[in-house]
Amino acid sequence: MTTYLRPALSLVVLMTVITGALYPLAVTAVAQVAFPTQANGSLIHDEQGQVRGSALIAQPFTGDGWFHPRPSAAAYATVASGASNLAPSNPALAERVKADAGMLYRAELGPVPQALLTTSASGLDPHLSLQALAYQIPRVAAARKLPVERLQGLIEEATLQPLIGPPVVNVLALNQALEQLTRCADHRNCEG
């Protein structure tokens, strides 16, 4: 019996050490050396070095002085991330979108962009289309007392072109640049 049991137990121990310890340590080491930013969560820091969020996860911004991200079915919580699972034919989805469109609609701007009314599949998409950001410019400009042209330039500077798909902007990074711009406009804590 020991002729069968000992090799089996030895193999279980060996595979546990390889797959449970050595392999994860090797992958972690390679990731830390080759991709340290991504391996540590793609964190975004402010000028004081404080973590403000991740470039990979949306977070809520409220108030007229900020660019708002897409809606989130999970309230921007990573634990419960996911879509609402409401079908396009579901009356509850239609009612929510209609209510959101009613709150965001401005006659002078035309229809509300779809990205401001619908959630992404994960509910945590940190990027917005240029159209969705342009729709928010008048509100942010009025709240911050900044020229519309300056906000358009800020969006252009923050625009990313993915390999596939239209240009997008990370809302957290844009709002950080907006805060820096506002500090500079107020002549407090402005460098350069």
From TrEMBL:
Task of the protein: Part of the high-affinity ATP-driven potassium transport (or Kdp) system, which catalyzes the hydrolysis of ATP coupled with the electrogenic transport of potassium into the cytoplasm. This subunit acts as a catalytic chaperone that increases the ATP-binding affinity of the ATP-hydrolyzing subunit KdpB by the formation of a transient KdpB/KdpC/ATP ternary complex.
Localisation per UniProt entry: Cell membrane
Subunit structure: The system is composed of three essential subunits: KdpA, KdpB and KdpC.
Keyword Hydrolase: no
Origin: domain of life: Bacteria
Keyword flag Transmembrane: yes
UniProt-listed InterPro entries: KdpC
Pfam families linked to this entry: KdpC
Gene transcribed to yield this protein: kdpC
Protein family membership: Belongs to the KdpC family.
Lipid bilayer topology: Single-pass membrane protein
NCBIfam families (alphabetical): kdpC (TIGR00681), PRK00315.1 (NF001454)
Swiss-Prot/TrEMBL keywords: ATP-binding, Cell membrane, Ion transport, Membrane, Nucleotide-binding, Potassium, Potassium transport, Transmembrane, Transmembrane helix, Transport
Name of the molecule in the record: Potassium-transporting ATPase KdpC subunit
Main location class: membrane
